[in-house]
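Issue: copy button drops trailing tokens. Both records pasted manually instead:
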Amino acid sequence: MAEFIASGLPTQRGHEFFSSAEGAVSAGAWDSTAYAEVKGPYSVDEFMILLEGSLDIELEDGSTQTFKAGNGFVIPKAAVVAWKQSEYLRKFFFIHDNTDSPPAEAGLQAMLVDPSLALPKVARQDPTLYESEVPDMGMLTMYQDPTKKFLAVIWECSPMKRVATTIERSELMHILEGSGSITNADGIVFDFRAGDTFLVPVGMGYQWQNDEYVKKIFCSYTP
């Protein structure tokens, strides 16, 4: 990694808590002391949620985008950027590292998954997916890779309860507002609330329920 360091001698630590069977995606936590990288094309698609610290990403045109604790953002594969952090930083990450996947279209850069944006309403929904009434739902896709398998999304939903199923994607989600629960195939209930970040792996028994309005940002990968 030394050849990518422009300045600083960082101490970095990481823990991977999920990796897909085919190795295309992984998720975990990472932290580092201050350092800066040489500008160049980013090697993977990466969705991040900053937990502590701040980060400057220098873009290809020389401008800088700043991300702070609490922000979720994406750096697309092949985006030409330079990573610059002047302080300790800690993050959750969700990485798409599939060598068969083409890079994103030219000109894409690091992008904030901005929860303040207006979300288009989901107009058509299958009522058989719900044990409850069909909810009011809004969703905005901020980024999808060329394969359309890796997505970063802002989502909101009125109270609802889904039919129990098996989830067909791996999803790292960060709850912005509201609370609810997920019940797995063994009947174990996982309660969540605003501020929580968690991952649901592909193939898990899955029943989502929220008794109040919920808003989240998430990144998913569908094999």
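Record 2 (pasted manually too):
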Amino acid sequence: MRWRMKMAVVVAVLAWGLGWAGPVAATVQPAVMPGDRAVGLASTASGRGYWVATAAGDVLPFGDATGHGSLNGVGLTAPVVGVAATPDGGGYWLVAADGGVFAFGDARFFGSAARVALSAPVVGVAATPDGGGYWLAASDGGVFAFGDARFSGSLVGAPGLDSPVRGISALADDSHYWLVTAKGALTVFGFSSGSWPSGWADLSSTPPVAPFVEVVDHGTATDVGVWLLGGDGGVFTIGSAPFFGSAADVALVAPVVAMAPTPDHQGYWLLGADGGVFAFGDAPFLGSATPG
């Protein structure tokens, strides 16, 4: 015992003299746990980090992303389906399929649809640019607005809605948002002149190789455009949204489920259900959440 104590003192002295802090815990790469799956992706304000959200409510940080909390260990009544970050990256919202909303960090809670008798599950969330509100979208085209997010319409009861809504994305204000269906029908709400900017068309007339899973607004002040994401990793551009690449030619282990743009919209990340992350354009690859 005395010998061990002397050795400990020697090690401590050597560590101090050499400027070494001594042994530290090994860095553990965040990963999607067995039985769970990745469902959402959000970028930090710098574009040098991102969060991966899982169906069980875990939030896995990469790069300069900071963990602000998660639902790990919470007995959820429905799985998490999406994540949205606050403008400064100091917090995020998680939304569950039953309409429940969970706020972490500097994200404020403005309400949820958890007490609403939903006709269909919630599939996504989009925050307003100032972080003062958010929209939830359901697979039947229902839209729920909270905080400063303004309700501009929905697809509930819309004629010709022959496939479920899969994603929602907001323009750079508090009243315009996009919905996309699994077959690629794209609708924008909030334009007084009609549903579509002049000269646009959706992709619903062309059968997709895999169902669409996400719509992401290009988000510039002068141009209007969107990216559409297919479950096979295909990326489709409409309007001013530029093409930086896709995962359509990758031998995927799991379907692609989410997309997040960089803050300058000159790149994007794609997320696989297994936690795999694919980076394009100026989006830096900062790690994947795949197990092992």
